[in-house]
Amino acid sequence: MVLALLLPLFCLLHLYVGQIPISFSDYWSSFSNFDATSSNHIIAREIRIPRLFMALIAGAGLSIVGLLMQTLFNNPLAGPYVLGINSGSSLFVALSIMTGIPFFASELGLITNALLGAFLFGLLILFFSRLVKTQISLLLIGLMLGSFISAFVAFLQSASNAQELKVFTLWALGSLQKVEFSQLPIIIGITIVGILGAFLLVKPLNALVLGENESKLLGVNIKTTRLWIIVITAILTGLVTAFCGPIAFVGLAVPNLVRILFRTQQHFILISASALLGAIFILLCDVIIQLTEPFFMLPINVLTSIIGAPMVIFFILNRLR
Amino acid sequence: MRFLALTPLFLLLFSCSNKVDSIESASEINSFDDISIDYAVNFDLIPTDDGYNLLILSPENGEIEQSHFIKTLTKPKLISLTSTFNGMLCAINSQNYLSGVSSEKYVYDSLILQKIASKEIQVFGDESNHSLEKIIANQSNIVFYNGFGDGFPNEKKLNQLGVSTIPIYDWRENHPLGKAEWIKLAGVITGKIDEANKLFQSIVLEYNRLQTIVDSVSSNPTVTAGSFYGDVWYAPGGESYFATLLKDAGANYQYKESKGTASLELSLEQVLDDNIKIEYWINPTVDTKIKVLQMNPQLKHLSAFENGMFCYSGQMTKFWEQSAIMPHLLLHDLIQVLHPELSLKRELYFYKNIQ
Question: Of A37, B87, B202, B286, whose CA is between 20 and 30 Å from B325?
Answer without folding.
Answer: B286
